[in-house]
Amino acid sequence: MDYEKLLESAYEKMPKDAHKSERFEVPKVLGHIQGNRTIISNFHQIAGALGRKPEHVMKHVLKELAAPGELSKTALIIGTKISASRINEKLQHYVNSFIICRECKRPDTKIEKAEGLTFIKCSACGARHVVR
Questions:
Q1: CB-based contact 38:90 (threshold 8 Å)
Q2: Residue 2, helix vs strand vs coil
Q3: What is the CA radius of gyration of the chain?
Q4: Which of 2, 34, 58, 117 is most buried (most C-beta within 10 Å)?
């Protein structure tokens, strides 16, 4: 047998889930409602896991929720009552828009500004996309 046939037979014998490369997971929102405000206590950890500045993530989430809010040292305080599932939806939208590479679908990206435009630059494949 030549190398190619041996490689194909090895791939066939591997379990199907071994081909998945799911190493990136967005942390779920932890928080509570206090009066008319929603307090997300792990917002800084979420932004750190995403590899983005908390201010950038906050700006996008608040815009998508159409809600006022502010970032404190320990949490994100949103000025209305909002369910955790809805906030998680908006975080997933942020990940799809600003983190996942459109070419290789990996989360190894950075935000760069050049020529008056904002780009997402992928460290894995080298692709560069304009952000709206």
A1: no
A2: coil
A3: 19
A4: 58
Residue type, 66: A
Binned average pLDDT, 10 residues per bin, the chain of 132 residues: 85 63 77 93 93 93 94 94 93 91 88 88 87 79
DSSP string, 31-84: EEEETTEEEETTHHHHHHHHTS-HHHHHHHHHHHHT--EEE-SS-EEESS---H
Tally the residues of the chain: 132
Which residues have C-beta within 8 Å of that of residue 117, sequence separation ≥ 6?
130, 131
pLDDT of residue 23: 62
| DSSP β-bridge partners for residue 33 | 38
